[in-house]
Amino acid sequence: MVPKKSGDWRPCGDYHALNKVTVPDRYPIPHIQDFTVKLQDIPKTAIITPFGLFEFVRMLLGLRNAAQSFQRFIDQVLQDLPYSYAYIDDVLIASNTREEHLEHIKAVPQRFNDHGIVINPSKCQFGVSELVFLGHIVNKDGIRPLPEKIEALRTYPRPTTQRKLREFLGLINFYNRIVPNLASLLSPLYKYLGKEYKNTKEIVSTEDSIAAFEAAKTALSDATLLGHPKHDAPLSIATDASDVATGAVLQQWVDSSWQPLAFFSKKLQPAERSTVHLTGSSWEFTWPLDTFDTSLKVISFMFSRTTSPLLSSPHANLAVTLLDRSDT
């Protein structure tokens, strides 16, 4: 039993053994019946506690396919309510006016009630113009990182072990889509993840790595506000690549200027670096396409690149790749 912030208790189980023999759930079509535990599977969820043995008749977190099954279920429940957005058990309701919001906050709970979903009112917020959702602050203007996360990274001490470095990289890479060219900025730090640095405390000790560490912390503090997509705004993907990383920004044309919607960056492997400035590479476009895929469905957009190889020497693989995606 794990204590919650509210003072209540959360039952948990160790399902490492069960998860190892569970087939991963990749089926895309929603199945509402997946919300409950099948009768024959209930004994598999048994846990031992100081209070006795317990079996779960409803899905619980910790099982390998719990998140996927619940996401399919909640998508099915809310599928015809376009003003609702669900990420597993976090549900956002967006309205343009107070009158709309009153209607929406009646419709969603009613839909939950119809499907036997119980909500906790103490964990809900209604009628607010700004809120925290999935680790970000969301308001009518856009999305930005949480001040407490910015402060935690700003005061993060220089890593002296690989474990602490991995922890720092995990924290800041959570905001990869908010910080432009983050992979390039962090590139001097990745070498310290190699085997030769496994048992040393000479981590982030060179001038360039210390500078990269400090710059990365500052970058999140200076992060650009990401706007909300406007359905009638022209879209563009601007890409660039260096010797160590590639990056891109998905942006929209609003009020006579480009407004960023999301950033993408990726560290290049040694074999990929050799192609960047010689012939150009289609992955400079395909990687951002895959990342921004859901934002580009059923709309037109344009590409631009800040360096020249693809412009001066068109890449056949790029043309094939873009054509292949044009009917999806």
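The above is record 1. Record 2 follows with the same two-line structure.
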Amino acid sequence: LSSSMDGLTGYDAGVGSPGNPAGPAQQQQRTKRMRTSFKHHQLRTMKSYFAINQNPDAKDLKQLAQKTGLSKRVLQVWFQNARAKWRRNLMRQES
């Protein structure tokens, strides 16, 4: 029964299943990426743009990346986190 259930749940009783270590091909650990620390001018630029537009498109992200020296992905994550923080603060004010 458990072997037929494995196919349904997506788990395999062997390599990579919960509780079992990853297989030989997956044993190389990823290097942990360092946390990005923003400079004052970068934060000022991002916050001022956030006040105008909370959802920048690809073109806007590219311009901000050139202006701040940050990657588009870092900016994308910053805006995502800023929107979550904005919503969280909005909910606190309403209650």
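Residues 15 and 23 are 5 Å apart (CA to CA).
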